[in-house]
Design brief:
Blueprint (H helix, E strand, L loop, with lengths): L1 E7 L19 H16 L6 E4 L3 H13 L8 E2 L8 H9 L7 E6 L3 H9 L12 E6 L12 E7 L7
Parallel strand pairs: 1-4, 2-3, 2-4
Antiparallel strand pairs: 1-5, 5-6
Helix pairs in contact: 1-2
């Protein structure tokens, strides 16, 4: 059994209109929400073996803040360019490349693709993945390369403004 955490990047800043979308940083709320959400995962005793992210600044920083809470070296983040403006196919391909030995992976990306992707995984639907939301599923497989066709079960959904702990 494998576990997948699909995480939308935290709240980003729109303060500098001259910045390309790819280079937008997190705002203060995003910098606070990321460690908070990582701590919620730790409170559930969820270990993360690999952190996989879009290379866009806001997604990469969200992943790095989660990794820091897990005492995981941010230099070991796996950056996949296709996770920026990702289609569901891009998500399936990225996850299939995850290290086979990793039992739980966290994938950080963007809307609208992330919402479309999570809505394909199980019977549970979300209208919109809020910033820093986590959609968790259990995957009946021994290797991530079989992810696309493996049976999947909804595990949990959490986001900063929810009352979950």
């Amino acid at each position: 059994m494998k576990h997948l955490l699909v995480i939308r990047h935290a709240k980003s800043s729109w303060g500098d209109a001259s910045l390309p979308d790819f280079d937008r940083p997190l705002n203060d709320r995003g910098k606070n929400d990321s460690p908070l959400m990582a701590q919620r995962l730790l409170a559930r005793s969820i270990a993360i073996d690999a952190f996989i992210s879009s290379p866009a600044k806001r997604a990469r920083k969200t992943a790095a803040l989660f990794a820091a809470e897990y005492n995981h070296d941010k230099e070991q983040l796996i950056l996949i360019p296709e996770l920026y403006h990702a289609s569901p196919a891009n998500f399936f391909e990225a996850i299939a490349q995850a290290p086979a030995k990793a039992n739980t992976i966290a994938v950080f990306s963007h809307n609208p693709g992330i919402t479309e992707f999570v809505n394909m995984l199980t019977e549970v639907r979300v209208d919109d993945m809020p910033t820093c939301a986590i959609f968790g599923i259990q995957v009946a497989t021994q290797d991530w390369k079989d992810f696309k066709t493996a049976p999947k079960t909804f595990w949990f959904f959490d986001y900063p403004k929810s009352l979950s702990v």
